[in-house]
Amino acid sequence: MVTMSEPLLGPGRGRCADPGRGESGGRARAFAYHRPATLAEAFERFAAQPGSQFLAGGTDLLVRLRDGRLRPEALVSLSRVKELTAVEVGPQIRIGAMARFGELLGHRALCEALPALAEAMRTLGSTQIRNLATLGGNLCNASPCADSAPPLLVHEARVRILSAHGARELPLEDFFVAPGQTRLAPGELLAELVVDRPSPATRSGFAKKGRVRMDIAIASIAVSLELDGARCKKARVAAGSLGPRPMRLKGAEAALEGRLIDAEALKDARAAAEKDVAPITDVRSTEAYRRHMAGALLARTVTRLLEGRSR
Amino acid sequence: MSALAFVVNGGRVELEVAPGARLVDVLRGPLGLVGTKEACGNGECGACTVLLDGKPVNSCLVLALDVEGREVTTIEGLGGGEGRLSAVQEAFVERGGVQCGFCSPGMIMSATALLRERPAPTDEEIEAALVGNLCRCTGYKQIVESVKVAGAKLRAAKEARHG
Q: Do B58 and A128 touch (CB under 8 A)?
């Protein structure tokens, strides 16, 4: 039954939406839906029904729901839980897991403090996706291609995990286990990302290669360099789409750290990156091309950071 | 079935929806607002773009129950009623930004949102903003042109009001 306070602009009534048998052909089956207002309520709702699933931005989850790959007993939407959207930028940076990428891009202090993350967010998905997708959801979906992961890895982020029983923190580096799998236990949720504000001498950036402009990355690289002139005091390098998890490239870091970054250093870093990564051949690209791009994107990004260019 | 109440194109609606219903299902189904199209169903093509609290989103990726209490604007809500077109819609018509028309509602919603945020976008900014709206017909040139012309129209109208 539809009631309206004003006539709608449109040609008239249509069929009743029932996606289980609708024209979309989706195979979704009925489930309970809850939209708690607080974290405490969210945990209660989750615990009340085995087979519950938390819903963040929905950009990954709704696709899986529609084609039947995900069949939850209940969906607990986090879209009303304000506690999960807070963003703080100070000597410590805290980003709530339900913060949407579109909102984060408008947060000037955050983007200035974490340039690699800002660059990654700018090309993540599309405008429409960024207005829905959340930082927490991107990480918990645990795709090896997650664009927000390499920048957060070079910023040495920690994840704060909450459950009905308490809280724990671990380095983001330890959070990913395998494609689609994180260290979250059932009933836990990723609540917050915590980053120590990079020093003023730090420059960071992100580069991604896709087949077309809106695409899942074939290869992505994030770099953070603490510089003293052209001498690198500290280097952090991370890669996406180049292994089963977003990963730090420690060989590349060692090739850059404590060194004057000249052509020789870049050459060594490129070679180290190509060895560090474990790419595969799939529908989007080949192992050989990805391996090559790991080195190329690293060299390009390091050069750009040294020259102080934003692109 | 659960109760859902939200505002669409300035009018409040109340209806019963299945939990798995997406916003696009509710718009095109019981609300009969078939201007919003569904093509890919997974957030890649942008044909289903609507404004949610003023921001462009893929309505195929929004669970209907999540829009409780919020505001949705569809292509039907842009013009002034009685067949009047918005400046963006007019520009698309004038500049050949519409061929088969299937991408057009979504494209126009994205363009409308862009121009509200950035009244004088460069070509590059237009292309970046519309990267989530695919068009098979135009090759995008006329679409970018339409957005620039729309921007000029809107700026001129604003000058005329404040000048």
A: yes
Which residue does chain A place closest to B34, by CA atoms? Answer: A10
pLDDT, tens only, A8-43: 443 333 333 444 433 344 445 679 999 999 999 999
User: Binning pLDDT at 50, 70 and 90, where does residue B83 land?
Assistant: confident
Question: What is the DSSP track for A102-166?
Answer: HHHHT-HHHHHH-HHHHHHHHTSS-HHHHTT-BHHHHHHTT-TT-TTHHHHHHTT-EEEEEETTE
Q: Side-chain half-sphere of B132: how many Cα atoms within 13 Å?
A: 29
Instruction: Collapse the DSSP code of A299 into the 3-class scheme (helix H, G, I; strand E, B; otherwise coil) and give the result.
Output: helix
Q: Which residue has the tokens 């090309």?
A: A123
User: What's the distance, CA A50 to chain centroid?
Assistant: 27
Supply the pTM of this predicted model: 0.93
Rg (CA), chain B: 16
The tokens of A150 are what? 């390499």
Q: Is B160 helix (H, G, I), strand (E, B) or coil?
A: helix
Q: Do A18 and B21 touch (CB under 8 A)?
A: yes
**Nearest CA among A205, A227, A209 for reference residue A150:** A205
Q: Which two tokens stand for residue A252?
A: 């590349």
Q: What is the pLDDT of residue A143?
A: 96
Q: Is A11 left (phi over 0), alpha (psi -120 to 50) or beta?
A: alpha
Helix B141-162, helix B87-94: angle, nearest 10: 140
Task: Tally A–B CB contacts below 8 A.
Answer: 164
Q: Report DSSP state, residue A201.
A: T
